[in-house]
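sanity check this chain:
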Amino acid sequence: MVRRVGGIPGSVVAIVAVWDGDTVHGWFVRLPAITTDPAEQSALAFIHWRLAERHLGEGAQLDGRHPAAVAAERAGGDLAAHLGVPFHFASPDTPDDEAPRRRP
């Protein structure tokens, strides 16, 4: 994701996690970067259940949370810290594609 961020036009001002879903993967989390100049969202990753389980490893402590949320929180938080920008996940405990979100 660090390489992908490097190719995004504009200044990255935040990394966000947003729930989404479809009939194939069920619930998953999108990780876009929010930029200025131009003001837009640039997709960095889509984290679905199986990818999250592979990333987190067997026996990961989920505390009843969706694996995609835990993996997105870790990856998005780490990337935001690396870039020195905020990370925002409006609904980390419950899938909600209507949760308030940061926009460009």
In short: Residues 67-83 form the longest helix (17 residues). The longest strand covers residues 11-22.
